[in-house]
Amino acid sequence: MPLIAIFSDVHSNTRDLERALTYLETRDVQAYLQLGDLGVEPLRLLHGLPIRHCFGNWEVSTFPGIPQHHQTEIAVWPALITGTDWIATHATPAFPAECVDLQSTRRYMTQHRPRWMQLFPSLLLDENAIWSAFAALEEQDRLIAFHGHTHVQAVQRFSSDNRLLRLSGNHVDLPPGSRTLVGVGSVGSPRDGNQPRCVLFDTVANQVELIVIQ
């Protein structure tokens, strides 16, 4: 499965999700990852695709209001999706071990009452969360963490002298041994422009392409 399309934060915007999916049909995509804050209505557009889902803070907070026939499906969405050398998640790979899926996360929140930004921090604005995310990659022996939540496309990596770098360009190489955070942007409500955004991950070339849907 060399080419994976990864997107997040549709926020019920089916029109822009349709635009993104129409574009992705023109690329040789073998699999899709959806990283949370989707909305119920967009689910119909994704049926039949080779897709894996993880939940976001929207699914956690609005779960009681989700129609019953969708709750069974969404309740078992995991916090993390993992590959050979990568992790995909809504906000951060540094997630409590007890929070395996959406249901267990709701139980965790009832028992421990964490602040929302503890479970779902910004990997653009929260320096401690950024450090924790890189530490989670190290701990879980993964090189790449794909995430949504910030609604901004951004690729971050530490330099050899331990400075945090935000990489530029639409194509970013993922060299072996370098740990990287990849913010996939938002399909439905981007904060870095008006167009839907997602990424393509070439697992053979180890390269990420940042996509802006025109």
How would you portray this structure in words?
This protein has 214 residues and is an alpha/beta fold. The protein has a single domain, classed as 4-Layer Sandwich (Purple Acid Phosphatase, chain A, domain 2). Helices cover 27% and strands 25% of the residues. The strands form 2 sheets. Strands 3-2-1-11-12-9 form a 6-stranded mixed β-sheet, with no helix packed on it. Strand 1 (3-7), helix 1 (14-24) and strand 2 (31-34) form a beta-alpha-beta unit.
Name of the top-level CATH class: Alpha Beta
In N-to-C order, the SSE pattern is: EHEHEHHEEHHHEEEEEEE
List segments where confidence is low: pLDDT < 50 over at least 5 consecutive residues. Answer: none
Q: How many helical stretches?
A: 7
Biggest beta sheet summary: 6 strands, mixed
From the 3D structure, determine the CATH topology: Purple Acid Phosphatase, chain A, domain 2
Task: Label the structural class.
Answer: alpha/beta
Number of self-contained structural domains? 1
Any guess at the CATH architecture? Answer: 4-Layer Sandwich
Strand order of the largest sheet: 3-2-1-11-12-9
CATH superfamily: Metallo-dependent phosphatases
Seen as an oligomer or otherwise, the chain set is: single chain
Helical fraction equals 25-40%
Structural Rg? 16 Å
Shape: globular
How many extended strands? Answer: 12
Strand content range: 15-25%
Mean pLDDT: 95
